[in-house]
Amino acid sequence: MIPGRSAWEQVMLGVPREWFIPDVIYGHGETDQFGNDLYPVSKLDQPERWWDLVRADDAVITQVDDGHPSPAGTGYELTSSASTPTLVAEMLVVLDPRPGERVLEIGTGTGWNAALLASALGAGNVTSVEVDPTVATHARSALDRAGFSAVTVITGEGLDGWPA
Fold it and tell me: What's the whole-model pTM score?
C-alpha cells in the first residue's frame, strides 16, 4: 500500500471519474480500411460498454486524431485520455500537496485530476493549463458541473507555465 493513498482514494470516491468523462469515448476494435482501430463508444447508444470502460482501472481514450476522427467516427491516434485511477492516486501521493498550497497542473485533460486537487486544496488553489481548446472547454464544463468552478483552466501551452 502506498502511504497516503487511502486518503486520496476517499477523495476519489467523493469526486467520481465518470463526472469528467465525455459521453463519447473510444475503445479498441478491428482495424478498418483506413487503418483506424479506435471506435467510438457512446454513453447513449452503448451504455454498458461505456460504463465498463469508465469503471475499469485503465486509461479511457477521450479524443482521437486531435478531435478529427474519420467520417465513420473511428480514429487512428489517441490524442487525449483520462489516466488510470491507480496511477492518478499514486501521482497525487507523490506530489503530496498540503492544504493551502497552490498547484499548477500542465495538461488538464478531462479535469478530473484538477477536481481531485481542488477537493483537497480548495478550488481557488488549482490552475490547470491545456493546449487543446476543445479538451479545455470540456474540462471547464465538467469542473463547473461538479462544483469546482473556482478552478482556473487556461487554454495555452503548458511549456510556458502560468506566471499568475
Answer: 0.91
